[in-house]
Design brief:
This protein has 386 residues and is an alpha/beta fold. The protein is built from 14 helices and eight strands. The chain starts with 11 loop residues before the first helix and ends in a 15-residue tail after the last helix.
Length: 386
């Protein structure tokens, strides 16, 4: 991060500050990326191996942060230095929870699931705290966008037109924090044309504030609006009264009334319980979604009783599932694919050999290219495939 923007003339102390910033920044970003690497490979039998791989990052990050904190920042950069240290705190917590000596391993690995979930939430908090620093720190900006867009960072955050809210916006929630949403409006949005909207549903016990980071990097460069709602209960309405469908419909309506959204390009996707609910909700009557892309979910039995299977005819659906899924074994997904195909859905089924019950970030590219070819990466580096 040594290319922080500053107009001050460097003196000896300032040069020391930028040297330590240049040392601290890469360690910070490498730790973020390392955690993403481990999260993608998260599978109960290999948790111990993942912990072993991440554990050396803990002292490296702590030492780099300590050295950076020991230097007095140049005039005008005190706030940036404080914000950077604030952002690294939840990342250190994430690494300690996941890979620290107290984390469960071996035969006790399933007992550590709460620590793993806590680590993933802390990783999201680190991104949340770091993201506002992207304008001052180009390496941070590069982290939060896909490789083909890194050559022109200024185009990602131009001065917004007057009256156009951009960035990460938070919607109202209940007193307990449930039922709200996170909305990401890329900095390049100016309202002059209708953009696609991706609605991404978190898994059980999750929330939109965390799940938005699963898609933000893609939204920022590929120019689509991203809505990450939070279920009204601990998970989506998979049993009992459906309190989430009206809320989702209202959220999408609110976004389309405030922003220019292409009503023919509204994707509903989700992970685990969010995937299961994306089918249960997305196939209901009078829902605004034009395509569905569930990841690691199931075909809820209620779909057969409420008329959803009849409404699946002709609907564009892309199912993604891991062959190693321990929570929802892959045979369940194969049955779901067969039933949707029999119902006449315009179905794409993709099975990932090395995926357990976790999020496969690389699938975002494939989903977007399937959903709308104009959202494919603008170079041959795209990994899109069916």
């Amino acid at each position: 991060m040594s290319d922080a923007k500053s107009d001050a003339k460097p003196n000896a102390n300032d040069e020391h500050f930028f040297r330590e910033l240049g040392a601290f920044g890469p360690v910070f970003l490498q730790a973020l990326e390392g955690f993403e690497w481990a999260q993608r490979r998260l599978h109960p039998p290999v948790i111990g191996q993942l912990q072993t791989a991440l554990r050396p990052m803990i002292p490296r990050l702590e030492e780099a942060r300590r050295r950076f904190q020991a230097v007095t920042p140049p005039a005008g950069l005190e706030g940036l230095a404080t914000d950077l240290v604030t952002a690294v705190s939840p990342l250190e917590q994430a690494l300690q929870l996941f890979a620290g000596s107290g984390a469960a391993a071996g035969a006790e690995q399933m007992q550590g699931i709460a620590r793993v979930l806590g680590a993933m939430r802390a990783h999201c908090r680190a991104q949340e705290a770091l993201f506002p620093l992207r304008v001052a720190l180009p390496p941070v900006s590069r982290f939060f966008v896909e490789a083909p867009f890194r050559a022109d960072l200024d185009a990602l955050d131009p001065p917004p037109p007057e009256g156009v809210p951009v960035g990460l916006l938070q919607g109202k929630s209940q007193d307990d924090g449930r039922g709200g949403f996170s909305l990401f409006v890329p900095g390049s949005y100016d309202g002059s044309e209708a953009w696609p909207l991706v609605v991404a549903l978190h898994g059980g016990s999750g929330d939109g504030r965390d799940f938005v980071w699963t898609w933000l990097r893609e939204a920022r460069g590929r120019r689509f609006l991203l809505l990450a709602p939070t279920s009204r209960g601990p998970t989506w309405s998979l049993m009992g009264a459906d309190v989430d469908a009206p809320a989702l419909r209202a959220m999408v309506t609110a976004v389309t009334e405030r922003f220019a959204v292409d009503s023919d390009r509204i994707l509903l996707t989700g992970l685990s319980d969010g995937a299961t609910y994306s089918l249960l909700c997305g196939l209901q009557e009078d829902m605004p979604f034009t395509a569905l892309a569930p990841l690691s979910g199931v075909l809820h039995p209620m779909n057969f009783a409420n008329g959803n299977m009849e409404r699946a005819k002709g609907r564009r659906i892309r199912l993604v599932h891991g062959a190693l899924d321990w929570m929802f074994p892959v045979d369940i997904a194969r049955v779901a694919a067969a039933e949707l195909d029999k119902a006449g859905a315009d179905l794409s089924y993709h099975e990932i050999d090395d995926l357990s019950h976790t999020y496969a970030r690389e699938e975002n590219d494939r989903i977007l290219s399937w959903f709308d070819p104009t959202l494919a990466l603008p170079s041959s580096s795209s990994s899109s495939s069916t």
